[in-house]
Amino acid sequence: MSAAEGPLVVGVDTSTQSTKALVVDASTGRVVASGQAPHTVSSGAGRESDPRQWWDALGEALRQCGDAAHEAAAVSIGGQQHGLVTLDERGEPVRPALLWNDVRSAPQAARLIEELGGPKAWAERTGSVPGASFTVTKWAWLAEHEPDAVRATKSVRLPHDYLTERLTGQGTTDRGDASGTGWWASATESYDAEILAHVGLDPALLPRVVRPGEVAGTVRDSHDLPFSKGTLVAPGTGDNAAAALGLGLRPGTPVLSLGTSGVVYAVSKHRPADPTGTVAGFADAHGDWLPLACTLNCTLAVDRVAALLGLDREAVEPTSDVTLLPYLDGERTPNLPNASGLLHGLRHDTTGGQLLQAAYDGAVHALLGALDLVLDEDADRSTPLLLIGGGARGRAWQETVRRLSGRPVQVPEAKELVALGAAAQAAGLLTGEDPAAVARRWNTTAGPVLEAVERDEATMARISGVLSDAAPLLAGGH
Q1: Where is this site: Important for activity (predicted)?
Q2: Which of 25, 174, 239, 274 is catalytic?
Q3: Is 239 a residue of the active site?
Q4: Spatial distance between the Cα atoms of 252 and 379, rounded to a whole number of angstroms
Q5: How remote is the C-alpha of 207 from its chain's centroid?
Q6: Relative to the CA of 163, which of 100, 321, 352, 389 has its CA 20 to 30 Å away?
Q7: Residue 82 annotated as binding?
Q8: What tens digit of pLDDT does each residue of 362-373 get?
Q9: Mind listing the pLDDT tens digit for each residue in 96-106?
Q10: Does residue 69 contact residue 21 with C-beta atoms inside 8 Å?
Q11: Is-above-0.85 flag for pTM?
Q12: What share of the chain is helix, strand, coil (3-state, %, to 5)?
């Protein structure tokens, strides 16, 4: 490893399936070491993980980084959004964390929307209409189904908060991740006392919201990680806000992330409030806003279809008649938490490759449908769509997004953008820069640009028609 030009920082991505750590040269953005370790997620009706696995995985990922991690001057944690972490008086988990893709709280979400003024009131108040992914609905579910767990809970955290607190000994969060709870008021940028009272959550159980650029704390003595005591700890943030930092996003540039979930977002100077609930009005990690639409079913759902067909994920064939809505785990956009997958238009001459292409089309359809709602009205529609996430380098994903969006598509070569964004946040503590400006200096969006092609309006319209016609069936679940 050649000598670093500047101080070293660590950026962490604690995601649904694993924790990744990057040691980055704060001066150049060069990744000098990396590590990754997996977590387990429950199957069945819920999606849960033991938070202690995240800590163990962080330790293993950092050990893989070797001496470089010990030399780091600052660290930041980016993490999966929405997850409900309940801790007892010793800071130990009361029960496994309820993850963002656990949709058992859909009835509680519907009830809370009705009880507190309807969708428009929620959007104006918190920036978002809560769905089953939001933390407030998970707390309501827990209170209804596991009251003993609620009584044993002495602090409530999000996944990135949990790891940050174990590093510093202090309960903190940031505005980006707090905005995805459903109990943080975007208009006042503070916890909403009325919502908390309504769901029976004492605000004293919640972490302090650290301001952008503020130091959340320093690494304390009592840990087994390769950090020096006194290493600066940045506020951290949710995974999408961290990726936005990692890309150095300016307002108006759209991003489509292809991962376990599919996400489309853009930075905005305007506080969003979509009463339809399609767009979540999240805050970003450095003072602006991050309107965002998210689907539950993306790369994993398409890979599952490919596996059922016995095909490689790239073995697609053009299709014009068959529609596949890959809602294998319910869906968030559109809001159909009880839905399952739906296939329409199957013929004797339909091929497996056409079915697979239909799965890609179905997964991308909802995200692109939300794109215009995510972008400000004055956004330049010719700006390339940044394609990131695990699926971004897949040829079939690239061509599907290109064909259905009608926009130029840019695929950044930088990998692990959530961890890179966390690293940029850590670097900002040392240099005093805006973390997004740090990432722009690192040139993280560099990558090939695929030219725009004519938008496939016919396929978009066909999928919309099937979705509309099947809405009662999909809403009913079984």
Answers
A1: 13
A2: 239
A3: yes
A4: 5
A5: 20
A6: 389
A7: yes
A8: 999 989 988 888
A9: 999 998 989 99
A10: yes
A11: yes
A12: 35, 20, 45
